[in-house]
Each structure stands twice: as structure tokens, then as C-alpha cells.
Amino acid sequence: EPEVTQTPSHQVTQMGQEVILRCVPISNHLYFYWYRQILGQKVEFLVSFYNNEISEKSEIFDDQFSVERPDGSNFTLKIRSTKLEDSAMYFCASRTLGFSGNTIYFGEGSWLTVV
Amino acid sequence: ILNVEQSPQSLHVQEGDSTNFTCSFPSSNFYALHWYRWETAKSPEALFVMTLNGDEKKKGRISATLNTKEGYSYLYIKGSQPEDSATYLCALDNTGTASKLTFGTGTRLQVTL
Asked: How far are the Cα atoms of A60, A107, B33, B85 from residue B95, in angstroms, in the given order?
């Protein structure tokens, strides 16, 4: 069964460093998302991406964050200068169509630890 | 702030028991409710997407119901097995824009022999 894949599974980085998290969404999907879960908290929405542009972003997704779909298969999340509070599990997700009854498929997550 | 609540937070049952848990959400601007099953170190597995009031969906021993007027959904597991041990997440789509889901805190289920 097709799946969303994410790399790395775990990354430790120093505060202030740039991090890129990578995702390969399911191949015929058109809508892409990043969510994150800080330990002990709810899964929260970061950004949605469609037709090569951001369609919606949350308050968390400030200028330190950016997303890109550089080659038609990968979907990346970049954090320019990481802070301690960016430590979280980051989930990539995708779906085929943009209507509410459509399933959103999630990857296994990338666990980011900022020290 | 949109509040999606799940109860109980955790649940411990014996193999063979049937169990259920609740997802509560604001009933206004409802578009869809998603249920996921999430085992540690795996991707959240999509169980159901529910859109219509009164919807009932079933997948094997797991089923779900939806009441959009009063703002709740129940997830039922019949004859729990150890492999059902996981965190069950519900997530609300209240924008209809194919953008964000708002998640609950999850119900952590442990099934023992």
C-alpha cells in the first residue's frame, strides 16, 4: 500500500542551526501538510500546500519556517534557526483531493531534538 | 480556540472486553471528523472519515458513530485484542478548505491478556 515516507526519523541539532525535514508524499496526491506534536501536547497544524504554494499556515509557522516542493516528489520543511521549543515530532501528510471527506495520510514522523 | 476533547485520556482493558471512547467538538461549522489509530514509532493509520450526522462506519471490530448536532463521535472496539493497543486520535475539519485538522489529545488504549 502506498505510504508517506519521512526522513530523518530522528535528528538532534544545536540551537540556532538550520534543519531540513524531508517527506515523500503518496505519488498521486495533490495536497500536502506539515503537523507537529510537542511531547505531551496535541498534534497541531503547521502548514498546508497545494499547487506549489502555501494555502494556509498557522501562527506557529512564522518566518523561521518554510516549505518547498523542489522536484515534484519531495516536500520539505525547513527551520532556519532552530530554538529549543522547536523540539517535537514533525509529521508530513498528504491527500488526493481537497474535499473534507477525503482521507489524509500521515507519515511516521521525524523526531527533532534541539539542544 | 477550537477545542476538540477526547475521553478518557487512557484506558486499560482485558483481552476480549469491548470498549468505547468519545470525541467531543463544537457543533458549528462541521465538515468532517477523522479517526486515526497511532502506534508508537508508526504512522497514524486512518480509520474513518465521517461527514454526515448519523453516520456509522465499521472496519473489522472497530466502528464509529457521529452526532454533529450535539458535537460528538464514539469509537467502539468489540472484543479487544492486544494488537488494538494504541493511541486513538480524532481530528476535526471545521473549515472545509482541505486545509487543517484540529486534533484531540487522544485516548491511549492498553489491552492486556
From this structure: 18, 23, 11, 31
Tell me if A43 and B42 make a contact (CB, 8 A cut-off): no
DSSP assignment of A21-34 equals EEEE--TT--EEEE
Cell numbers 498521486 correspond to: A28
Kindly list the residues from chain A whose CB atom is less than 8 angstroms away from the CB atom of residue B23.
Answer: none
Which candidate from A91, A99, A106 shows the least CB-CB separation from B98?
A99
User: Each residue of A43-63: pLDDT tens digit?
Assistant: 999 999 999 999 999 999 999
CA distance B113 to B111: 7
pLDDT in tens, A14-34: 999 999 999 999 998 999 999
CA angle B34, A39, A11 (to 5 degrees): 105
For the record, the C-alpha cell of B113 comes out as: 491478556
- Sign of the Cα torsion B98, B54, B69, B66 reads negative
- For chain B, list residues whose CB is within 8 angstroms of any CB belonging to chain A: 31-32, 34, 36, 41-44, 46, 49, 51, 89, 91, 93, 96-106
Cβ atoms of B66 and B73 within 8 Å: the answer is yes
Among candidates B83, B32, B53, B23, which has minimal Cα distance to A104?
A: B32
End-to-end CA distance of chain A: 37
Averaged pLDDT of chain A: 94
